[in-house]
Write a structure and sequence with these properties.
191 residues; seven-stranded mixed beta barrel; 6 helices; 27% strand; alpha+beta; two-stranded antiparallel ribbon
Length: 191
């Protein structure tokens, strides 16, 4: 069976892969993110041909998530996997100069995504949309390993840092709303 471009998406650059030691040192040097307020820095839709498009503005809905994203075509019956979200600074560290669209996440934000700060069921206002933290763990996979290397996969999935959600989290849209790059994110409640 042949696989489509969507199965793979963009390839990573092996010359940009960092070692586990470099990733851990880079992470330790990052500033502490805000626990209660953040900002949307990048909005990405993953299309059927494997291409990722960035958007300045979207209408995020419970039925569609990010318009045109693969979730609406392939996984609409799994709302707990609707929105993939990653902390921008962690993504930039792992990408090491590669475009953030290589990850395949929908939103890149500057907010504390740790399970301590945002336990499952926590609600946030993202622009005008209301979202909820999903119980689905957002783990690294073979595609992540191929794009960023074995050490990056160990970095995001190792027991010592797993609660930091370095690979990101899933959110589900509860109420539709406009979301733009630069919009505020506010934690409304923690479960």
């Amino acid at each position: 069976m042949s696989r489509s471009a969507e199965d793979y998406g963009p390839q990573g650059d092996a010359a940009r892969h960092l070692t586990l030691t470099e990733l851990e040192a880079g992470h330790a040097a990052l500033p502490q993110p805000s626990r209660d307020h953040g900002t949307v820095h990048l909005i990405v839709a993953r299309h059927a041909d494997g291409v990722r498009n960035t958007h300045e503005h979207i209408l995020m809905t419970p039925e569609g998530g990010v318009p045109g994203d693969r979730w609406g075509r392939l996984l609409a019956d799994q709302p707990e996997m609707q929105l993939t979200v990653m902390r921008q600074e962690v993504a930039e560290l792992i990408a090491n100069g590669q475009p953030l669209t290589v990850f395949g996440d929908n939103l890149f934000v500057d907010l504390d995504l740790t399970s301590e700060n945002l336990p499952v069921g926590s609600r946030l206002r993202v622009g005008e949309a209301l979202v909820e933290v999903s119980p689905m763990p957002h783990d690294g996979c073979a595609k992540f390993k191929g794009r960023f290397g074995q050490d990056a996969l160990r970095f995001v999935s190792g027991k010592a840092l797993r609660s930091q959600n370095l690979r990101g989290v899933y959110w589900t849209t509860v109420e539709a709303g406009d979301v733009s790059v630069g919009d505020a994110i506010n934690v409304l409640s923690r479960a």
